[in-house]
């Protein structure tokens, strides 16, 4: 059956048909929908894990048990899961184990542009790299075959333009392989030095076997061309741009396997053309390999290291004509993403700004607190970093009387808890604010260990944040409603002044949740409004100034009432 | 020959349903189709763009500058933002709805005046109409996406029944009648 499918949906279908039995992931754009799609099937087990490291360990356990297992994550999630990854390369698998990692060239929704292919080489775990949805589907199935045949985890490497592009897929039926029995094999699975020393040569031998396989694999293929003055080596989405620009003119070596690469096939291809051009997004990964083989290539000397490619970028570098459009002769104001109307983070951030706080930020919707007009954040690094950063800032002896961390509920469960353990253990006077909006927001509303629901929306275990923080040794745990500005201000001032570590839980569910009912829009009495713009300081998209008076867009306003607390002239009524 | 469309607007306006509808329709007409979407951070009230490409064999999932045969826009400023992507003979179909972006809300920038006229003056074919009001007439401001699809259908040779079949396939039954009304209001606007 032919269907238009997102790359992530197609990968999920391939994994499903290949008989995946267990799925454990942490959401992260652009990887999230693989797991969301798999969660729609009832003939497999799926879950959101608290972080990628746990997810990968869960998948390892299922593999050990002889079942095909999967974990998916974004590129930076693989940093978190790197610890189990490198040693799983040594243990190998029992049931097949596939890891999807989704890069985000162009940083549509990420804090960096790292190239995950380096992880394949560094951990010696093979990586397949599809270039459209159909390949995402096929390669997902192939990944399980390779995993069991070569006794290794296998990467399925996605990127934004594969994950979030729909193309045609011809899908089939699920075939559940027979579960492999678990047999105790400490020499293979207990990775202490005496055993690991014997496993390392196995890994190297496996790599040689994979290199040999890569030479004959159909996924590393040559598309013939009519003009051998140039030969292009490419992969992933770059392949699509090359074909868009060149059609069948130049021969193209398309690599479906990012690591290990087929040295012989690359040498033969290079010998068949006059000049080799490597087209790949981000780092010169294929290019460096070609140079190691002694093949002279053009690559990052002409193509950018940064950002996504496109057909025009490729055309310009290959000396082809580039279409041009016309531009307006004036500045079109930008439209950056903003916190939504009724966002519970807004009131809390306003309180922090009013108190002139230095704010250690974290990863989530609340990173948007860094934007105009609040400009509330001082730093954002990675998941959980806000707590460690505050502790370090204070312990270095810098003044900390207005220093706080902000971290979401899901991010706190992901990797904030260990930071708080450090605060409790090494006793810094930190003020940690958990922005508990009862959901994983930015990635599109996934459940997490604090929400009380599982991936399917069914009742699940629920971690009590207050009890958790107290159990970790934080005696001062306060809960505030971020819609109540006076309460936020009072609690913040008390906790900043306290001579002890403290946690403030700012609790109010995300305004976009279906379970949250919007209140009627706020009304403005134009006679009372003096146009002082106090209400504009919270950066609510529903409020604007027209003809010197505040105006509410009633299609956007959800009646949160934060703005009504700012008006000195009682112009707002709920 | 591959055809290119961009659907642009503000995060949350419903471009994903519009692209789903087009993808279904074009696939049913025997074309190879690719649709590229934006998920994640930029969806939060930011400028969003969806690419739809169709033809005998489509490679790239995105539309580049100077390539778009159609730009369908939910919002006037967004049509102007992506004008550079339009082919010289391309067609803009845009709602005249205006949503102030944050720099305008805060007073750091002004919303440009007379954008449709300015785009026309640069040689662009611009079909600007009030899709939001028609959507409200149909029963919900959320149906502006389908009003725009109705208007867009003018520029295609497909029989109206082809569009109806796509609506039936892509929209939940309880919203179907309202969306059919929205489509008709757009098509006859």
Q: Give the CA-CA distance, first to last residue of chain B.
A: 30 Å
Shape of chain A: globular
CA gyration radius of chain B, whole angstroms: 16 Å
Count of DSSP strands of chain B:
6
- Biggest sheet strand order of chain B reads 2-3-1-4-5-6
- What oligomerization state is this entry in? heterodimer
Beta-strand share of residues of chain B:
15-25%
CATH superfamily of the largest domain in chain A: Thiamin diphosphate (ThDP)-binding fold, Pyr/PP domains
- What's the CATH H-level superfamily name of chain B? Pyruvate-ferredoxin oxidoreductase, PFOR, domain III
Helix content of chain A: 25-40%
Largest sheet of chain A: 7 strands, mixed
* Number of strand segments of chain A: 23
Largest sheet of chain B: 6 strands, mixed
Could you estimate the helical fraction of the residues of chain B in percent?
25-40%
Strands of the widest sheet of chain A, in order across it, are 3-2-4-5-7-6-12
How many structurally independent domains of chain A?
4
Describe this structure in words.
The complex is a heterodimer of chains A (574) and B (189). Chain A is an alpha/beta fold and 574 residues long. Chain A has 19 helices and 23 strands. A 7-stranded mixed β-sheet of chain A has the order 3-2-4-5-7-6-12, with helices on both faces. Chain A has a 5-stranded mixed β-sheet with strand order 9-11-10-13-14, sandwiched between helices. The N and C termini of chain A lie far apart (53 Å). Chain B has a single domain, classed as Pyruvate-ferredoxin oxidoreductase, PFOR, domain III (Pyruvate-ferredoxin Oxidoreductase, domain 3), CATH 3.40.920.10. With 189 residues, chain B is of the alpha/beta class. Chain B has helices at residues 15-28, 76-81, 102-105, 115-121, 131-138, 144-152, 160-170, 173-187, and strands at residues 3-10, 32-36, 47-55, 68-73, 86-95, 125-129. In chain B, helix 5 (131-138) packs across helix 6 (144-152), helix 5 packs across helix 8 and helix 6 crosses helix 8. In chain B, 39% of the residues lie in helices and 23% in strands. The mean pLDDT of chain B is 94. At the A-B interface, strand 1, strand 8, helix 11 and strand 21 of A face helix 1, strand 2, helix 2, strand 5 and helix 3 of B.
């Amino acid at each position: 059956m032919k269907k238009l499918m997102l790359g992530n949906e197609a990968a999920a279908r391939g994994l499903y048909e290949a008989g995946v039995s267990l799925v454990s992931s942490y959401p992260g754009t652009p990887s999230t929908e693989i797991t969301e799609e798999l969660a729609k099937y009832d003939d497999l087990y799926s879950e959101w894990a608290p972080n990628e490291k746990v997810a990968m360990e869960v998948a390892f356990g299922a593999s050990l048990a002889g079942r095909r297992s999967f974990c998916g994550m974004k590129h930076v999630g693989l940093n978190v899961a790197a610890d189990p990854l490198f040693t799983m390369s040594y243990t190998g698998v029992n049931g097949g184990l596939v890891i999807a990692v989704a890069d985000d060239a162009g940083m549509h929704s990420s804090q960096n542009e790292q190239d995950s292919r380096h992880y394949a080489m560094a951990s010696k775990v093979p990586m397949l790299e599809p270039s459209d949805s159909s390949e995402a589907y096929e390669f997902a199935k192939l990944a399980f075959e390779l995993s069991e045949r070569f006794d290794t985890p296998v990467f399925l490497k996605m990127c934004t333009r594969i994950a979030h592009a729909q193309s045609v897929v011809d899908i089939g039926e699920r075939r559940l392989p027979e579960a492999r029995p678990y047999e105790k094999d400490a020499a293979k699975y207990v990775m202490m030095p005496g055993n690991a020393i014997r496993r390392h040569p196995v890994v190297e031998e496996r790599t040689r076997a994979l290199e040999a396989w890569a030479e004959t694999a159909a996924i590393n293929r040559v598309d013939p061309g009519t003009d051998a003055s140039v030969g292009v080596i490419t992969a992933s989405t770059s392949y699509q741009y090359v074909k868009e620009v060149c059609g069948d003119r130049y021969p193209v070596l398309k690599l479906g396997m990012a690591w290990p690469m087929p040295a012989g096939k690359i040498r033969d291809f290079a010998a068949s053309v006059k000049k080799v051009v490597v087209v790949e997004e981000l780092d010169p990964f294929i290019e460096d390999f070609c140079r190691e083989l002694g093949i002279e290539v053009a690559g990052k000397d002409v193509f950018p290291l940064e950002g996504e490619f496109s057909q025009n970028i490729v055309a310009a570098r290959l000396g082809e004509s580039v279409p041009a459009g016309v531009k307006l002769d004036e500045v079109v104001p930008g439209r950056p993403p903003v916190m939504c109307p009724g966002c519970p983070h807004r009131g809390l951030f306003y309180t922090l700004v009013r108190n002139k706080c230095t704010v250690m930020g974290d990863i989530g919707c609340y990173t948007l607190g860094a934007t105009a007009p609040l400009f509330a954040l001082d730093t954002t690094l990675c998941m959980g970093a806000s707590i460690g950063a505050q502790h370090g800032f204070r312990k270095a002896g810098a003044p900390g009387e207005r220093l706080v961390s902000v971290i979401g509920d899901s991010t706190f469960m992901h990797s904030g808890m260990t930071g708080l353990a450090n605060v409790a253990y090494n006793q810094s006077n930190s003020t940690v604010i958990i922005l508990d909006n009862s959901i994983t927001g930015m990635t599109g509303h996934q459940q997490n260990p604090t929400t009380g629901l599982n991936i399917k929306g069914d009742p699940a275990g629920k971690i009590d944040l207050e009890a958790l923080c107290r159990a970790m040794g934080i005696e001062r745990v306060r809960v505030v409603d971020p819609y109540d500005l006076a309460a936020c201000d009072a609690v913040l001032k008390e906790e900043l002044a306290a001579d002890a570590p403290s946690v403030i839980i700012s609790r109010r569910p995300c305004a976009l949740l279906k379970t949250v009912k919007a209140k009627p829009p706020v009304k403005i009495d134009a006679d009372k409004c003096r146009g002082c713009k106090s209400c504009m300081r919270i950066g609510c998209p529903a409020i604007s100034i027209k003809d010197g008076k505040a105006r509410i867009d009633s299609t956007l306003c959800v009646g949160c009432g934060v703005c009504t607390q700012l008006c000195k002239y009682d112009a707002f009524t709920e | 020959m591959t055809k290119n469309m961009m659907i642009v607007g503000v995060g949350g306006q419903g471009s994903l349903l519009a692209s789903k509808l087009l993808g279904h329709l074009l696939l049913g007409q025997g074309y190879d189709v690719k649709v590229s979407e934006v998920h994640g951070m930029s969806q939060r009230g930011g400028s969003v763009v969806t690419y739809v490409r169709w033809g005998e064999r489509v490679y790239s999932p995105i539309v580049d500058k100077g390539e778009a045969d159609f730009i369908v826009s939910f919002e006037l400023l967004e049509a102007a933002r992506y004008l550079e992507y339009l082919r010289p003979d391309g067609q803009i179909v845009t709602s005249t709805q205006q949503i102030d972006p944050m720099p305008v809300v805060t007073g750091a920038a002004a919303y440009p005046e007379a954008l449709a006229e300015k785009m026309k003056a640069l040689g662009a074919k611009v079909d600007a109409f009030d899709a939001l009001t028609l959507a409200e007439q149909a029963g919900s401001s959320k149906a502006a996406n389908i009003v725009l699809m109705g208007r867009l259908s003018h520029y295609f040779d497909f029989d109206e029944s082809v569009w109806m079949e796509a609506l039936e396939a892509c929209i939940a039954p309880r919203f179907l009648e309202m969306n059919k009304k929205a489509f008709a209001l757009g098509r006859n606007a």
